[in-house]
Amino acid sequence: MSGLPDSYFTYARRQAGPDHGHYPASPIRERAPVVLPGGASLALWVVVPLEFFPLNPSGQPFKAPGAMQTPYPDLRHYTTRDYGNRVGAYRLLKLFARLGLRATFAVQGAVAERYPGLIRDVLFDGHDICAHGWDTDSLHHSTLAEAVENSYITRTLDAIEAASGQRVTGWLSPARAEGFATPARLAAQGIRWFADWAHDELPTRFQTSAGELISMPLSNELDDWQILITYTRPEHEWLAQVTDAADWLAAEAVRLNSPRVLTLTVRPYVSGLPYRIKALGNSLQTVLNRPGTSVLSPDDLLRAVSV
Question: A GO molecular function for this record (predicted)?
Answer without folding.
Answer: hydrolase activity, acting on carbon-nitrogen (but not peptide) bonds
